[in-house]
Design goal:
Layout (H helix, E strand, L loop, with lengths): L2 H7 L14 H23 L5 H29 L5 H27 L9 H8 L1 H11 L6 H30 L7 H27 L5 H22 L1 H6 L5 H15 L20 H31 L5 H45 L3 E5 L5 E4 L3 H4 L4 H4 L10 H16 L7 E9 L5 E11 L2 E8 L1 H15 L9 H13 L9 E8 L1 H8 L1 H18 L5 E6 L2 E6 L7 H19 L3 E3 L2 E3 L2 E8 L6 H17 L5 E3 L2 H23 L2 E10 L5 E10 L9 H8 L4 H23 L6 E6 H5 L4 H12 L6 E6 L7 H14 L2 E7 L4 H8 L4 E4 L1 H5 L5 H16 L3 E5 L4 H10 L3 E3 L9 H10 L43
Parallel strand pairs: 11-12, 14-15, 15-16, 16-17, 17-18, 18-19, 19-20
Antiparallel strand pairs: 1-2, 1-5, 3-4, 4-5, 6-8, 6-11, 7-8, 9-10, 13-14, 13-20
């Protein structure tokens, strides 16, 4: 036996690691180079290499080089990869190194020393040392048994193979070799060692072939081929025919050379399958089934080989060798023991399988899920007993039924499509899928069923469960998320989505759809009068009327609070006038329906509806359409409420202007855009300026001063900015009054302050005292005009605030007296010094006798209480004459002067007096002063505090 045989045996170790480069082109080049080297060596050996010397060199040192290449390759692979098979690679490298050394020693004698190799020699030692590492390496690569019985069977199988081969070899050749014929013990041992090692290696080869690991299958297959070739060459070498005629460099060396190179190439052949997962069990080639059958028949084949060995002696007419009989008996005994162990193992496995089958059956039968197996044709072959509890149908009734007959027709197409897609997909990529559909129950009800689908012998396994309650809960949650909880109408989100769908589904140019925004007028009064529970009931009734008033294809929704909306689907007409008329009629009919009285808890409640209408135009978005309807609704409320208003483009322009004005009103006090004007308050008896009333004006970017009504309309929506603006107005008025006092014009300034601001904890009481002290203005020079006296405000707290202001010396005027029922109550409760007559009492006082008497009576009441009176809005001389004749003490209006800027006010104060209609003008001295002797003896004093006036008892 030569060293190449030992080298080839280590090839199966390559199944344990991946050492080659990852590239198809590199693998092709490696195989081509291997074929060229092996083919070249075989050709040279076939023709004797030309000379005897070259034949010896190639037969000895060529084989040594091939074995050395295998050793280096295996060692590099072992260093590169640290895996469970790394020891096998190292052992193969050691074995190949021994083979290389043995061939090198053989070549040293034949090529260098030119003498025959001694028998035995050092080469024999190296050749014997290569086998043990190979045997251990093959055991490392073999798949380890999991039970002790399997270990025993593995040992018995190895002996069966080895015993049968030993019997056959002994019968054919070893019997002759064993006759020593006077040879030494060492030579006789060598003669038996080589074939016995071959038998062991063949046994390990077969065991590895049937039990090797599946890792790196291509490398193992290459190594097995190298080992098979080497063993064949060893068998030929050990035969008496070849042993006597063998010379180095012959064709037999080509087999060892090829085996060594295949072994060197085996680790690098793994790149062909790198990154590729092992084949699925269902996709294994048919050869695997044949290999499994041979594995089961291996013990019987071994017994057959032993029988043939014994028959060989009878055929040859020779006496049966006792060694053959003894070996055959041990093989038969091993076969019997093995079969007994396998029988016991099979009985245990059968019992375990039965237990698992019973366990699985109990799980299937007691599972709450329904398990169904359908054939490729769709017919149910098996249905678990849980079907009676889930579907209300017995399992036997469903078996044999086509699955398509049980699925809802609307879901059948989707189920068939998903099943076809699933079956067409590779099982490794998509092992399971999920299907949800409606399934007919025994009562005829459709149940929502969710199924997990698996493949099964060309058919399908359905693991199904009833998810009807989950689907209902999801539908309820979806409904709650898209509907108002109080009225059950669609909410803003769902309404917006439906508007978007209506716009997206319209035909090009079709603009018949419209959106109605509805706001209830008077709903707050119902809440305040009857309570919030009654208000909720009112909203429910409004929603019911709204739902009944729209068509089936339209959508009614509650957007929040007392705001509702309706989406009116478009028609087929394209006439804009007809469209507007039709939608306006629908909106007006809806307004009338919502304005009818409501019965709530035995009481009658009334609300009106302001409706804004916006039409869908080509290219408009859902957001723009809703915003247009909202603008139209606000125009309807501003126009008197309880009406329908159609959207017009100028509404958006006005909205933009209002928004810009509101935004500017927030920054105007900081940017200096507000100016303070003053209007003189004239004493009617003398024409003197008794006080000035501060009025804020807003200067636009173009330098235009907005009117008070325009300014107040913008500022009312400013919220916190309104209080900031009021504080600025009070501080500016005090600062300018103090400056006038330093110039010698000691006239009080009147500042209008809302009653709500007086009740604010951060109100002007502390601010007034601080401002007066900071600007050094006497307290008597400030008049606070109480405005907007709301009856809902606390009169006691307001009275305390006013008393505190009067203690400071600040005078209090009641603004808008005579303009409402709250004025009399305020006069009765609040400590005031001055009454400002409402503009409504002044406008018709000269023309209307009735109004003349009312105004006169109010003036007499004020006179009896010792209060001064100021008429506001005196714009014509007849009003001034009438008021003066009725006893009104002061007035202001355009009949005397309009609102003046500071420099014009200064000139008016220098002049000091204004002509009073119906009274001769007073002479004016140089410098504008009025001589005191020119004043009438009965002239009223300037506006001052009436501290002596007692507060009327409550």
């Amino acid at each position: 036996m030569s060293a190449p045989g030992a080298v080839a045996d280590r090839a199966p170790a390559t199944g344990g690691a991946l050492c080659g480069p990852s590239g198809v082109r590199d693998g092709t080049r490696g195989r081509l180079l291997l074929v060229l080297l092996c083919g070249g060596y075989a050709t040279g050996a076939l023709f004797g290499w030309g000379t005897e010397g070259l034949a010896m060199v190639m037969g000895d040192f060529g084989l040594s080089a091939a074995a050395l290449a295998a050793a280096v390759s295996c060692f590099r692979c072992a260093r590169a990869h640290r895996g469970p098979f790394r020891p096998a690679w190292l052992l193969f490298a050691l074995s190949s190194a021994m083979a290389a050394c043995g061939n090198a020693v053989w070549g040293w004698y034949e090529v260098v020393l030119h003498r025959p190799v001694p028998d035995p020699s050092l080469a024999d030692l190296f050749f014997l040392l290569f086998a043990p590492p190979l045997i251990i390496a093959l055991l490392v690569l073999a798949k380890r048994p999991v039970t002790r019985a399997r270990w025993v069977c593995l040992v018995l199988d190895s002996w069966l193979i080895a015993g049968s081969l030993l019997t056959l070899s002994w019968s054919l050749a070893l019997a002759h070799t064993a006759r020593f014929d006077g040879e030494s013990v060492a030579r006789a041992a060598l003669s038996l060692a080589y074939p016995l090692l071959d038998i062991v290696l063949v046994s390990m080869l077969l065991a590895l072939h049937f039990r090797h690991s599946r890792a790196n299958y291509s490398a193992v297959r290459t190594a097995v081929a190298a080992l098979a070739l080497t063993v064949l060459c060893d068998a030929l070498f050990t035969s008496p025919l070849m042993r006597d005629t063998y010379r180095s460099g012959q064709l037999l060396d080509a087999g060892w050379f090829t085996g060594s190179l295949l072994l060197a190439y085996a680790p690098w052949s793994a790149h062909r399958t790198a990154g590729t997962p092992p084949p699925e069990r269902a996709q294994r080639p048919p050869g695997r089934t044949i290999a499994g059958s041979l594995t089961a028949l291996a013990p019987y084949l071994a017994a057959g080989v032993c029988t043939l060995s014994i028959l060989y002696f009878f055929v040859e007419g020779r006496r049966v060798d006792r060694f053959v009989v003894l070996t055959g008996c041990t093989v038969v005994l091993a076969l019997v023991v093995r079969q007994g162990i396998m029988l016991l193992d099979n009985i245990a496995l059968a019992q375990e399988l039965a237990q698992k089958e019973n366990h699985f059956r109990s799980l299937v039968q007691s599972s709450s899920d329904v398990i169904m197996i359908a054939a490729p044709s769709g017919v149910l072959h098996y249905v678990s007993p849980a079907a009676s509890g889930v579907y209300g149908r017995e399992a036997e009734e469903l078996v044999g039924t086509e699955l398509t007959a049980l699925i809802h027709p609307d879901d059948l197409g989707g189920v068939v499509h998903e099943v076809r897609r699933f079956l067409a997909a590779p099982p490794s990529e998509e092992p399971t899928t999920r299907i949800e559909c409606r399934f007919r129950s025994g009562t005829g009800e459709w149940l929502n069923v969710e199924s997990t689908v698996n493949r099964h012998q060309g058919g399908l396994i359905f693991n199904s469960r009833d998810v009807t309650e989950r689907v209902r809960l999801q539908a309820q949650l979806q409904h709650n998320a898209e509907h108002d909880p109080l009225t059950d109408l669609p909410n803003r989100a769902l309404f917006t989505r439906r508007v978007r769908q209506a716009l997206g589904g319209r035909r090009s140019g079709d603009s018949g759809a419209a959106v109605l925004f509805i706001d209830l007028d008077g709903f707050k009064g119902v809440n305040d009068r009857l309570g919030h529970q009654a208000g909720d009931e009112l909203l429910v009734q409004v929603a019911r009327r709204l739902q009944d008033s729209v068509r089936s294809g339209d959508t009614a929704a509650r957007l929040g609070g007392d705001e509702f909306a309706a989406l009116i689907a478009g028609g087929t007409g394209h006439d804009p006038a007809a469209r507007e008329l039709r939608i306006h009629e629908i909106a007006d009919r809806l307004r009338l329906a919502l304005s009818q009285p409501y019965r709530i808890e035995g009481a009658e409640a009334r609300v009106a509806a302001s409706i804004g209408v916006a039409f869908a135009e080509p290219g408009i978005t859902a957001g723009d359409l809703l915003r247009n309807a909202d603008l139209a609704m606000y125009r309807a409320k501003a126009g008197g409420k309880n009406r329908v208003e159609l959207y017009a483009p100028q509404m958006r322009v006005e909205a933009v202007r209002r928004a810009e004005s509101a935004a500017r009103s927030r920054t105007a006090p900081h940017d200096g855009e507000f100016v303070l004007l003053h209007q003189p308050v004239v004493e009617l008896a003398t024409g003197r300026i008794a006080a000035v009333a501060a009025q804020a004006r807003w200067r636009s970017a173009q330098g235009i001063l907005f009117s008070p009504a325009e300014f107040l309309r913008v500022a009312d929506g400013a919220g916190e900015r309104g209080a900031e603006l009021g504080h600025w107005m009070l501080e500016e008025a005090v600062a300018q009054a103090a400056e006038r006092h330093r110039r010698g014009h000691r006239v009080p300034v009147c500042v209008r302050v809302p009653a709500r601001r007086l009740l604010d904890r951060s109100g002007p009481l502390g601010a007034v005292e601080t401002l007066l002290a900071r600007h050094r203005l006497p307290a008597g020079a400030l008049v606070v005009e109480l405005a907007d006296s709301d009856p809902c405000l606390s009169s006691d707290e307001l009275e305390q605030r006013l008393v505190a202001l009067r203690r400071l010396g600040v005078r209090v005027a009641l603004d808008g007296f005579g303009g409402g029922h709250a004025a009399i109550n305020a006069l009765r409760r609040l400590p005031v010094d001055i009454l400002r007559l409402d503009r409504g009492l002044v406008e018709g006082v000269a023309e209307s006798p009735r109004l003349h008497k009312i105004t006169g009576g109010l003036l007499r009441i004020a006179g009896d209480l010792g209060l001064q009176t100021v008429a506001e809005g005196v714009d014509v001389p007849d009003q001034a004459r009438a008021l003066r004749s009725m006893g009104c003490t002061h007035a202001r209006g355009t009949v005397f002067s309009g609102s003046l800027e500071e420099h014009r006010l200064h000139r008016a104060l220098v002049r000091g007096v204004f002509p009073v209609p119906g009274k001769a003008p007073l002479p004016v001295l140089a410098g504008g002063a009025v001589p005191t002797q020119a004043l009438p003896s009965r002239s009223l004093p300037p506006m001052c505090s009436h501290n002596e006036t007692r507060v009327p008892p409550t």
